[in-house]
Amino acid sequence: MWNPFSRLRSRPSPPGRLRDPHHATSPEDLPQGSRRGSLADIEFIGETAVATLTVTELSSGAGADQLATLLHELAETGARHFILDVQNVQHMDSGCLGVLVEATGQLAKHGGRIALVNADRGVSYLFKLTRLDRIFPICRDVMSALAAVERTGNGADASDAA
Q1: Least confident span in 27-31, 37-41, 115-119
Q2: Is the CATH number 3.30.750.24 carried by domain 6-150?
Q3: Average of per-residue pLDDT values in the chain
Q4: Are 115 and 46 in contact (CB under 8 A)?
């Protein structure tokens, strides 16, 4: 399986991380389609992993590393697209944006996309300020995000965006 995060290659994954019963290892291993993890609750809708982040802040190197680890784990499940429900996240810094941009580039090579759902004002503003809202669809709900990632075009449709 491809590793979308080159910076994770130099450091081993935490032991048992993907085998932990609270983390999704594959869509088939999920009882009733979901798992609860330390950073996110994960559900699968077809080839799309929906991760509802349970933290309020993703900042500093630790936040970027946590996000990179989560995205790596999602990639290991074989999910083609990722939807990040950031309803609980009130602050995200540029390090996390870099992780998302890198993951988007790697997913795009395999026909995958990332969308965000339920972004609060601060997080939405960060994406608009950096113009990353042109790369990441920012949607009101999971169903419109699902439609956005499954679309073959690169831009987010204004009717789906919040």
Answers
A1: 27-31
A2: yes
A3: 79
A4: no
